[in-house]
Amino acid sequence: MRDLDHVQWRKSSRSGAGNACVEVAALADGGRAIRDSKDRSGPVLRLNPPAWTAFAAWISVDEFD
């Protein structure tokens, strides 16, 4: 995971003060990396740009509120 040492991880402003969130980092190729904020050294899901665009469109439908 050394290639992710210098990315800037962000949490949603809707996450609140808790630590049970996902964090997202922009990658150089335009994709995104996603991780669990409770396990920062754990697994990371990487999405290429088309997959990230599709994922972001899917979650923006607000089916999760």
Summarize the structure.
This protein has 65 residues and is α+β, with helices and mostly antiparallel strands. It is built from one helix and four strands; from the N terminus they run E-E-E-E-H. The protein starts with 8 loop residues before the first strand and ends in a 6-residue tail after the last helix.
Number of helices: 1
Structural category is: alpha+beta
In the sheet with the most strands, the strands line up as: 1-2-3-4
Order of helices and strands: EEEEH
Q: Estimate the mean pLDDT confidence.
A: 86
Task: Report on this structure.
The chain has 65 residues and is an alpha+beta fold. Helices cover 17% and strands 25% of the residues. The chain contains 1 helix and 4 strands, in the order E-E-E-E-H. Strands 1-2-3-4 form a 4-stranded antiparallel β-sheet. The model has no long low-confidence stretch (mean pLDDT 86).
Describe the secondary-structure layout.
Layout: E1 9-11, E2 22-26, E3 32-36, E4 45-47, H1 49-59
Antiparallel strand pairs: 1-2, 2-3, 3-4
Salient structural properties:
65 residues, alpha+beta, 4-stranded antiparallel sheet, 4 strands, 25% strand, flat
